Amino acid sequence: TTTVDSNGNVGDYSSLAVDTSNHVHICYFNLSNYNLKYATNASGSWVTTSIDNASYVGTNLLGVDNSGYVHISYYDWSSADLKYATNASGSWVTTTVDSNGNVGDYSSLAVNSSGYVYISYYDKTNGNLKYATNAPGSWVITVVDSDGDVGNYSSLAMDGSGYVHISYYDTTNYDLKYARSSIDTTKLTDTTAPKGTLNINITSKYTNNTAITLDLSATDIIGVTGYYISESSSTPAATDSGWTTIFTTPSYSASVSYTLSSGDGTKTVYAWYKDNEDNVSSAASDSIALDTTAP
Questions:
Q1: Averaged confidence pLDDT in the chain
Q2: DSSP class per residue in the chain
Q3: Core-most of 58, 68, 103, 211, by most CB within 10 Å?
């Protein structure tokens, strides 16, 4: 056995990976200074580094890519954010991946052969299992499971075919759960836009309530990654705000709530779908007459 670091109260929440040259890489928490540290014996002896000196960071998961670069996902207790650190540029760079609520605890990370990162983690604010990847070129965040209080103690792995697998704990039902993604879209070229439909889930052609339900459905040869709903017929760009991100899947269907604009008359709702290559579908639409005025 070897003592790697004895400088203070160090070593909590450690995570380890071994690269293709059998060098060891470890990230861990420094309880004395409340920062994230990293140790490696790649030089022949142990060298330690402070990666993030924010006020309180820890609970982390480390992975090494095929080039020997290190990738770390971790929870920033002080800001309640999911953060990511890597030395892929030659020096350590830290990034806030998700700051929407109290997010990032119980993260798990995998790196594919192209160096893209995949992270599962817990959204404490909403009790959801979330997933983040930088495979499209920037971080994309998806809610994987929102059924009850789920997502604690997640573990993520990627298989040889590029599928992402996540195991996690369902606190509501005291169950072990499992999720599987579609194929890794970074390995394929997709020039074909998704095809989709939209139906207003009302049997009548009239409604007196602006709150309605939309039945959405779309397919893509690799994977649908998001949808956009509007009463405007103008096609949105894939980079516009207003897109709802979904867990990548070649066949998507869901019922979602929508609020019609005020004012009586015929209302037409449009839906567009996009894929990982930012191909945007043609518009799907449905109409209904809104009548909120009594005779």
A1: 89
A2: ------SSSEEEEEEEEE-TT--EEEEEEETTTTEEEEEE-TTSS-EEEEEE-SSSEEEEEEEE-TTS-EEEEEEETTTTEEEEEE-TTSS-EEEEEE-SSSEEEEEEEEE-TTS-EEEEEEETTTTEEEEEE-TTSS-EEEEEE-SSSEEEEEEEEE-TTS-EEEEEEETTTTEEEEEE----GGGS---S--EEEEEE--SSSEES-SEEEEEEEEEEEEEEEEEEEESS-SPPPTTSTTPEEEEEEEEEEEEEEEEPPSSSEEEEEEEEEEETT--BPPPEEEEEEE-----
A3: 103
